[in-house]
Write a structure and sequence with these properties.
6-stranded parallel β-sheet, 4-stranded antiparallel β-sheet, 16% strand, binds ligand ME8, ATP-binding, cytoplasm, ligase, EC 6.1.1.10
Amino acid sequence: MSTERRTYLTTPIYYVNDKPHIGHAYTSLATDVLARWRRLAGDEVFFLTGTDEHGQKVEKAAEARGMAPQAFTDEVSQAFRDLAARMNFSNDAFIRTTEERHKVACAALWQRLWDKGEIYLGHYEGWYAVRDEAFYGPDEITEKDGQKFAPTGAPVEWVREPSYFFRLSNWQQKLLDFYDANPDFIAPATRRNEVISFVRTGLTDLSISRTSFTWGVRVPGDESHVMYVWLDALTNYITALGYPDEQAPLWRFWPADVHFVGKDILRFHAIYWPAFLMAAELPTPRRVFAHGWWTNEGQKISKSVGNVIDPLALVDEFGLDPVRFFLLREVPFGNDGDFSRRALMGRLNSDLANDLGNLAQRSLSLIQKNCEGRLPGIEAPDASDSEILELAAALPAQVEEALDRQAFHEALERIWALSRLGNAWIDAQKPWALRKTDLPRMATVLRHLHTALRTLATVLQPFMPDTMRRMLDQLGVPEEARALAALSTPLADGVPLPPPSPLFQKIQDEPA
Ligand code: ME8
């Protein structure tokens, strides 16, 4: 198991044009689980999230609410902070792009690119989608009922204005070399291939300033321009670490280990961002992981359809940890997935209540009843015990291996293999029958079940922090013995265990 690593993990900073939805909760949840895992493994972790508050999209949303942009962003940004608190995200910081320190960082990065001759003044003429805050080439545009659309389905408008450009075309080959030298930079692999083919088709210089509105960071030395919102937004990842002060205490976390993003914004993170950084001669992030998109009961999630999923409503209905578990268990991270209430209830009842919950309740009740509520010692070991003990001992490394690839669903599958084995083992060993025939063996079986449960609860802490705290309390594991490394030190025989109570509630099936 790794020790003393330094880990920097980020979520996208979310647009404050609207309130948070399930997609936002999902990206941040994945980041949170990896952050918590790395802390459990002894890493020094910095986990950043925040809000993206400039640009035309936010300006228009403020206008529609009849509010000044700053007041509007103050309000919506708070909703994202509240979401993080309510979802129990363990972010170390929350950045807003309207903060002064961020404007300073953007100006410094711009100046550095300017000084290196990477920026020039020109004229932009082409398609722009406000919804995506992105420029599109003529060959990417389709037309329907007289309206033109980007490949994402966002309506585009023709823009013609003076603009500064970043010499992205100069970076095409250097980017391809960079992907080649860093095969893990873009994950999953299918996404990596998409990005590489896109870059191979050729990169044109990127417009990085706008003059037709003012809600943005001013370009240094030319007040008539505001920076393109994506240059501004991407810079947040270094602002938060103190850039441009490379002596700042947090700067030691750069480069980022994983930027978690949705597949919709991979291009910005996997092409523009490393190009900006290489051009500025700053270290590039180690990985960008693009996860898939959720649909709702088979339908694309959209405000106009009215099927947006409110993560807080789900949490109110099903409980926080079950929702956290479901989102990462149901769909392989990286794939698109469909949200359905039936699937959610199925998982909660089978995986959580029947499987893990029952194993804990059965084992701990038997210890409570038959061992005077004290942790039994190993009195009668048997060669047949090795399977469950070996699986428990191997589990942390297996979970770590999966999480290092951001394969959250695989980590959970591994964990449930031990939970299922535990249930099969208790059925086969029948400690309730041994109570009458062989007390030393009963004690041994219960002790091994306790070892399996302690392992399960320890590795599950990042996924379901509150419930696993309760489970570790019930298992008599002291606070200071809950890290991964502590698993190699057995608890003392005879430790008192509090009376167990169910960890998960079963959910009644809804009428069809
Ligand atoms: O793009 N399923 O912000 P944003 C899963 N400000 N995830 C989804 C989703 C869905 N249906 N819908 C959205 C931005 N997401 C920029 C980012 S970063 C420097 C700037 C998630 O508010 C997904 O992570 O539009 C996506 O990348 C993010 O929300 C976009 O959030």
